[in-house]
């Protein structure tokens, strides 16, 4: 269960980081 939670947080953080990068670049 812990692995799934960690993976979900990692994906969520990755998406958030991508949105911020796109926002800054734009």
Q: What sort of overall outline do the alpha carbons produce when their principal axes are compared? A: rod-shaped
Strand content: under 5%
**Arithmetic mean pLDDT:** 89
C-alpha-based Rg, rounded: 11 Å
Which sequence of SSEs, written as H and E, runs from N to C? Answer: H
Please report the number of helical segments. Answer: 1
Number of strands: 0
The stretches of 5 or more residues where confidence is low (pLDDT under 50) are none
Structural class: mainly alpha
Fraction of residues in H or I helices: over 70%
Main β sheet profile: none
Structurally, the number of domains stands at 1
Termini gap: 38 Å
Task: Kindly describe this structure.
The protein is mainly α and 26 residues long. It has one domain. Helices cover 92% and strands 0% of the residues. The chain has 1 helix and no strands. It has one helix at 2-25. The longest helix has 24 residues, at 2-25. The protein is rod-shaped. The chain starts with a helix and ends with a helix.
Brief summary of the model shown:
With 26 residues, this protein is mainly α. 92% of the residues lie in helices and 0% in strands.
Keywords:
about 25 residues, mainly alpha
Give the arrangement of secondary structure elements:
Elements: H1 2-25
